[in-house]
Amino acid sequence: METGLTVALIVFATAVAANFLHDRQRRKLNYVDDLLAREVGDIGSYAAYAKSLPLYRFADLHRAADRLADEAGAVARIASTHPEPLAMILAGRFYHGPNRSVRTPDAITRSVGEGKEAFFPTDGFLILDLPEGGGKRVIIRILRQPHTREAVVEIGAATREAAQAVLDRLLTLASTHSVYRGHTLEVSFETEIRDEHGDVEPGSFVDLRFRSHYAVAEADIVLDDAMRGLIDRLLIQFHHRRDELGRLGLPARRGVLLFGPPGTGKTYLCKYLAHRLDGVTTLVATGRALLHARSICQIARMLQPALVVLEDVDLVYSSREENAYGVALGELMDELDGFAADDAILFVLTTNAIERVEAAVKDRPGRISQCILFDLPGPALRQRYLDALTAPYDTAALDAEALTALTDRTSHAFLKELVFRAVQIAAEDAIPAEPAGLRLRLPHFEEALHEMKGGAGRAGAGILGFHAST
After folding, report:
1. Which of 37, 394, 437, 462 suits 371 as a labelling partner, its CA being 20 to 30 A distant?
2. Domain segments of the chain: what residues?
3. 3-class DSSP string for 100-136
4. Which architecture characterizes domain 379-464 according to CATH?
């Protein structure tokens, strides 16, 4: 009896021990460091190299890693998230024991084109055989840091030199095949992000947002011949012949400043340039984004050839004697002076008040090649613009010369609103099936002009773009 009980106890103890060892082995195989060691070997001897980048590069880094995997053939992927940096994981050092276990990472969405989004895991490991690895496998880890809002890429390799070489190749691929190339982008800096208590969080978070790309045809731009020729030579032909001109010793960077009253077509010309300049990435910065010239220029260098549009620059880059943003002004001048001769970047600055812009920006050749006045259109240009705006309608009974005279000292924006208002007035009796069936007459414009100018007196007319004679 005792012998049988002893045997039973031994069998039971053996089973418990076996189950314990089996469970321990099963859990061991589910530790991230063990999984990495199974694919790589002695990970304890590996060197780790890390680099933090702005979050807008997160999608590009993932796509570059996938490209490397397609070229080399991925050895393994481990989808797991851990708070420890790669160097600690390779050394088997964790803040807490449970951190070693594989845990599925979250996924975040990032824009990859105009109106397009894709999901990307916030952490994970890719093991590859790459030439830079020196005969040993390489670990690539891409993660999102939630607190700093950064994209972090970590490389594990047999030597630090190998890790640096892999990182360089990955970053080159991310830039060369960036999702942002060739698009029109808005550069934003979220400096006033509030927490749940309403307090402003410190720091600055840079991001890129895809803007609608307008197909602005050359016929849509109403300029006099001299202005059109100047814009063509300074910007369009300069871009298309940049390599030839570079061989003649010309730098690849150029900047112009567009100035004049509101509504005279400065912003519309920038949209036209973004459409005409083949292969160019357009970066648009306004408002508080102008305080971050260094970051904007770094993005332009990465995505060149680039067109950088800085709007309403008098708000930040005003005369240094009255400038509350002296650091930002100095940063812009340093950046404009700091480009290499082959940096293919065009700058277009706009302002409604050129007298407020710092002289060291507007009057310094090399920083700004030319200041171009966008003034109120004269009679000939005004008539051309009105002809273009009224072309869809029946204007057989419209006195074009009288309309041109009626609209003296008005901006392009005012003319556009005037035509819209006249069309509405003309359509009050009946709206035709097609625009060509709507007949426009001079009284429609006279009534529209009286209405627009009289709504809020002289000041109200000025807001819309009517500039009364002084």
Report:
1. 462
2. 32-176, 218-373, 379-464
3. HECCCCCEEEEEEECCEEEEEECCCEEEECCHHHCCC
4. Orthogonal Bundle (1.10)
